Amino acid sequence: MALREILVVPDPVLKQVSAPVAAVDDGLRALMDDMLETMYAAPGIGLAAIQIGVPKRVIVMDIARQDEPKAPRYFVNPQILWASEETLPYEEGCLSVPEIYDEVERPARVKLRYLNYQGETIEEEADGLYAVCIQHEMDHLDGVLFIDHLSRLKREQAVKKVKKQAKAA
Ligand code: K2U
Ligand code: ZN
Fold it and tell me: Model pTM greater than 0.70?
């Protein structure tokens, strides 16, 4: 396993639309292992492959609390089959938009179909933080960041602040 660099705004790679995966093989599992190690080290609770510069429709996640055992999840070619009309606001952040947090409104529940670490097809419903995180990560697969759901002014202020942080580093 290896730690990978996480890309940050305004890197144009983050705006790319990621391509579907042809097969869940050992090479893809090695990528998911690297993604999970990188996510835990950040630390974060989700990570999309594009965030480490790999334009493949792959997500890793672990929403277990710090006082709970790790519960890694792997999503290959994830699809949302259904989304509730009910929406909920959540204070989101993003490893690719460091130190910026703002409220985003998303469907409260979604039904997912994806391939797991073994390449098996899984269908399941998500709610709570699971629903928030998977929708946030699936946005990444389409080149969409959580700040793209904010006003233009807030988005421009966020990018300006991240650029200033990078310059000061
Ligand atoms: O995409 C990412 O950068 C991973 C996010 C996932 C996430 C964003 C918004 C809401 C939930 C999850 C990072 O884990 S950001 C850090 C974080 C950690 C816990 C809760 C919220 C944000
Ligand atoms: Zn993110």
Answer: yes
- Are 24 and 115 spatial neighbours (Cβ–Cβ below 8 Å)? yes
Residue found by looking up tokens 């990528």 in the block: 31
For a substitution probing ligand 1, which of 136, 144, 146, 149 has the most ligand atoms within 8 Å of its CB? Answer: 136
Q: Which two tokens stand for residue 67?
A: 């006082």
Gap between the Cα atoms of 44 and 61, Å rounded: 8
**pLDDT tens, residue by residue, 41-58:** 999 999 999 999 999 999
Query: What digits encode the pLDDT tens for the residues 68-98?
Result: 999 999 999 999 999 999 999 999 999 999 9
Domain 12-168: CATH class, spelled out: alpha beta
Terminal C-alpha separation, the chain: 27
Distance 145 CA to ligand 2 centre (A): 6
Domains of the chain, residue spans: 12-168
Closest CA to 95 of 5, 34, 20: 5
Buried/exposed code over 13-33 (b: 16+ C-beta within 10 A; e: otherwise)? ebeeebeebeebeeebeebbb
